Amino acid sequence: MHISLSGKRVLVTGGTRGIGAAITRAFAQAGASVLTCSRTGGEAADALARELKATPGDHHFVTADVSRTEDVQRLVDACQERLGGLDVVVNNAGRITHVPIEDLGMDGWREILDTNLTAAYDIVHRAVALLGPGASVINVGSGSALAGIHHRAHYTAAKAGLIGLTRSLAKELGPRGVRVNVLSPGVIQTEAELSEEVRTRYQKMTALGRLGTPEELAHVVLFLASDLASYMTGATVSVDGGI
């Protein structure tokens, strides 16, 4: 089934690499106008900008670090100025480090919490005035939120917090007709290289016997953004191959 999102105005954070780039492309190809961002420019951002320019629609790229309040405000202002409002927000930007708890200082803790959790709050907080009835907020979480992962206490805490934030926002914004859901990916094969040992281990853990692709996640994001999911809010949707 082809999902058309023609006329929708979309913000995707962290949209120039991996999962974010696939989501950005999918929205543009579905007919939406997309504004995306990354912390820095660079080759990946330039390549995506060229691709979006060749795709019909009103598409934009902004350099913004979503862990910085001033950058979030500038990002939301750009959505107002260039798109005239928002119908969909995808909070995809995230960071991860692998640090034993005895070595995890407050700076490292705050860096991951600010990017993976606080940024989602800040964007919705500042963009809520741009969201009308029928709008959809999709927070990209992680299957690790409930499982936990060795040396990633800060990351899993942030992703678990994202579930709680989503549930509360769903109840608060529901009367306005705004839906809020979490996409919970499993292990996805992006441009980041995995060793053959790691890839094989994760493949064996999934019911489907393989890793997922960014495009497979993007398809579910389109569904959650569309009217096909009009009665879904506060949900955590796992896309993990049955891990």
UniProtKB/TrEMBL annotation:
SMART domains listed in its UniProt record: PKS_KR (SM00822)
Ketoreductase domain segment(s): 8-186
Similarity comment: family membership: Belongs to the short-chain dehydrogenases/reductases (SDR) family.
InterPro entries the record matches: KR_dom, NAD(P)-bd_dom_sf, Sc_DH/Rdtase_CS, SDR_fam
Transmembrane residue ranges: none
Protein name stated in the entry: SDR family NAD(P)-dependent oxidoreductase
Pfam families hit by this protein: adh_short_C2
UniProtKB keywords: Oxidoreductase
Domain of life: Bacteria
Source species of the chain: Streptomyces rameus
